Amino acid sequence: EVHLVESGGGLVQAGGSLRLSCVASxxxxxxxxxxxxxxxxxxxHEGVSYxxxxxxxxxxxxAAKGRFTLSADKAKNTxxxxxxxxxxxDTAVYYCAARGPFRRDxxxxxxxxxxxxxxxxxxxxxxxxx
Length: 130
Known about the structure:
seven-stranded mixed β-sheet; 130 residues; 11 strands; mainly beta; four-stranded antiparallel β-sheet; globular
């Protein structure tokens, strides 16, 4: 059974940084896409970034590009989302999610849609004050 546990959320001022962590278990890292979504109050889940475990390919949404960095430590089955230059509009619950098994010969998806991710963590709140 896939299990995802997030940590690292909190309250930060605009311009600050946070690092989110997601510890994954119950599946083979290389066979999955592991990503981060966020959900602001009253809004749909928004894909932020994912990593393809087999080759380390990373996708970033437009909102994340240039400010957020996704990394992975396979030995620890952990994915990190480093968020810099945070803005009030980044305020949301951030969820770690996994999609797979994903065939390694398939092209890396250029979009993140929530329904394609079958496993989700409990979420961690990120609040950015102005």
